[in-house]
Amino acid sequence: RKPVSLPRLADMHARGEKITMLTAYDATFAAVADQAGVDTILVGDSLGMVCQGRHSTVGVSLEHMRYHTECVARGVRRVQGTAWVVADLPFGSYQESREQALRNATVLMEAGAHMVKLEGGGWTAPTVEFLVARGIPVCGHLGLTPQTVHALGGYRVQGRAEADAQRLRQEALELADAGATLLVLEMVPATLARQLTGEMPHCATIGIGAGQGTAGQVLVLHDMLGMNLGRMPRFVRNFMEGQNSIQAAMAAYVQAVKQGQFPEDAVHGW
Ligand code: KIV
Ligand code: NA
């Protein structure tokens, strides 16, 4: 397999081949995910929950993200892997100014990321443009944005009311205009996610709890392995069921997404 690149992701989006994304936080899981055929590995700040035992991602620092990004990048390199590595800019590391965002994105890129992800719309568009112009690929993240859970009032579906859907659509188009080439849509109605995906030929949507109409799917590693300590979100499927290894579970996830068998709108949607 050839390494996954921006042109390759754009090509997959254009051809309608579903893009698979899975989180990983250390070298071994990253290497196994790569071997299972996962296209993109997200070093998510969800590590605050699954690795650090926090209740939210708010307390995750840039140094935490740098460390885990380095571990994941090493794991992929060690197996001469092909996965595209995305790293989350944590809360507080990009909100202050475009310059702050560039400085901190540089830290994650130097740690081995191929792309950084940041949450939110509107005010983030000039930041995305600033990073992209300076050679840093950017993934946006709209809908339920966990870093702002306290402002959102909890982990709940976003964009259900007509006015919220309009705003989300506006923000997505602005991010795509600014040069974001991937966009995570978390917990938004399937119809909205599908419509947006069709409207953005140069920005591939990656859904989580957003139905099957997106250009790709992402899940948190521990969730899809059935290792959730809290309540399992409705949009998750336990891919360990019926498998005898973690790599097989990951491969089953890849296959289910590629074949349009995950998610099922009726079970994993809103
Ligand atoms: O941190 C994370 O794992 C994420 C995904 C849920 C998209 O941002
Ligand atoms: Na995240």
UniProtKB/TrEMBL annotation:
The keyword Cytoplasm applies. Its main location: cytoplasm. Mg(2+) binds at residues 45, 88, 119. Coiled coil: none annotated. Binds 1 Mg(2+) ion per subunit. Catalyzes the reversible reaction in which hydroxymethyl group from 5,10-methylenetetrahydrofolate is transferred onto alpha-ketoisovalerate to form ketopantoate. NCBIfam families: panB, PRK00311.1. This is 3-methyl-2-oxobutanoate hydroxymethyltransferase. The lineage of its organism: Bacteria, Pseudomonadati, Pseudomonadota, Betaproteobacteria, Burkholderiales.
